[in-house]
Amino acid sequence: MVNITYDASGSIVWQDPDTGKIFVYNPGDIAWTLASTALVFIMIPGLGYFYSGLLRRKNALSMIYLSVMTIAVVSFQWFFWGFSLTFSDTGSAFIGDLRYFGLKGVLEKPSIGSARIPSIVFCIYQLMFAAITPMLAIGGFADRAHLGPLLAFVFAWSTLVYDPIACWTWNSNGWSFAHGSYDFAGGTPVHISSGSAALAISIYLGKRRGYGTEALAYKPHNTTFVVLGTVFLWFGWFGFNGGSALSANLRAAQASIVTNLAASVGGLTWMLWDYRIERKWSAVGFCSGAIAGLVAITPGSGFVGSPAAVLFGFMAGTICNFATQLKFVFGYDDSLDVFASHAIGGIVGNILTALFAQASVAGFDGFTVIPGGWLDRHWIQLAWHVADSCAGVSYSFTMTTIILWIMHYIPGLRIRVPEGVEIVGIDESDMGEFAYDYVAMEPELKGVSYVSSVVRRESDPESLMKERHSSASGSNH
After folding, report:
1. Model's pTM, two decimal places?
2. Single GO cellular component annotation (predicted)?
């Protein structure tokens, strides 16, 4: 029997039957955390639209599909054992145990994240973080991966990569948490882990057909989707960072304002760096910079003041912009620059958090006490953040590579598509559905087969432009 009552103000009162200790849950804190859950949820399809817009149209629908597929797979994994492996209050400094297998006992008890909310509220909120992280990594598969095996990959990756890193970062038993690393909303568990995984994925898959020689064919097919996805992500990030206070308080408000400020400065910085080369104002550049700013401010959002947020945005917009050139230097094909934006952005955020974290800002919630970072003359903080960042990069990269090669030798789970499928597109080969109706109608109107039409159009964009010009001239007559 659940021992729950309500006091005169409507707060939930629960008494621990073992210790007799009384816990009071404020409905406002619960409401804010649940609202933040919904905000983070909308980020996942938003990420799908962002990725989809950056790809060619023949792969546009597959990335949006993968965003909702990831939510479903991780929701089951989180219920099955993900939450227990990450947040059980027993287990090692690296991974939890199966105490809460199948969410057994996850309801009214105080959460391990905060005694101000019950564990069931904390569980659903953290599920959204667990779901968006593999979706970030999936950007590395863009244009050249079968969709079926990705169901297995998401389940395995969530279990073997995300859960341990989140455990050591946020679980009070975790080694990084115990040593006092500051990661308010997921610099290492979310961004460094997913970005490093995307690098491993890019290296495993190899380059796309024609990469480096067909520049026009690899331009974003729908910039509107990119902007729409950025809006969803930016909107949801208020719940991602602000909600991580797990309470409706001043710390949540501070996290929200620095989040918005870092995104704004990051977007402007990246766009200006691009302008110096092209002498054009790039919507894609602004959106990329805004995402980089959001990534960088994530670990420090509950620890730094507003002036520091300007530096977070500027440094992320600058460093992540230049980091996109790493793929040309080292010869890998990271189709959506996930490593440059998320792994590098997460490292930038971790380092800056160690430098600018303030005990006074963390104390805005009325109960958090920390020694602060370099701004508070706590010098050892930087060493812990460097160690945490290096551990996140190396563990995620190594484990992702192992998962990919194990799947490579299991019948039916090999991910890389053959060249013929890559030419036709993942939407046609693996889905038989398309992002736009007119793509499917086009062959009928022209009297040619769909496959030959797509192959010709995607491999020879110049010929397509001539055809369009010719059609336009004919219609004028």
Report:
1. 0.90
2. plasma membrane
